[in-house]
Write a structure and sequence with these properties.
With about 160 residues, the chain is an alpha+beta fold. The chain has 4 helices and 8 strands, in the order E-E-E-E-E-H-E-H-H-E-H-E. Helix 2 crosses helix 3.
Amino acid sequence: METAICSRIALSPSHVLSPKSGDRLSLYKGHCANHGIPTAILATGPGKGGGLLERPTIEKTTPGRESEFDLRKSRKTAPPYRVILHNDNYNKREYVVQVLMKVIPGMTLDNAVNIMQEAHYNGLAVVIICSQADAEEHCMQLRGNGLLSSIEPASGGC
């Protein structure tokens, strides 16, 4: 089997292949155009891509079940809500810090103290910004522990 560089190749009477400089053709016999049968054409030149593309995989979902893409999209489009802690004259500062750390996931001691101080001096403080369902749950837990709290839409995002 030889590899030749040719200027023109007739694949059939109606099709003519004109390879560019640097293209390689594998032939059964002969050197050039109409003397052999092309068996493989490597159409990549220097610096060009080539090869087969892999077949794309299409995610199939079962009826009644959302795809991972749909879940991510719905999370992104859900408007955020603020959980607000209001100052009261009943609870001690240490107790407020303990409740914040118990109720809000990931709440550190430093953040809880800062939120408590802000509510004490300014009358209210933003505890967390999250989804509406989570905000409602956090608000109910804070109230269940004797703290005054509310939620509101977080205009302007997180």
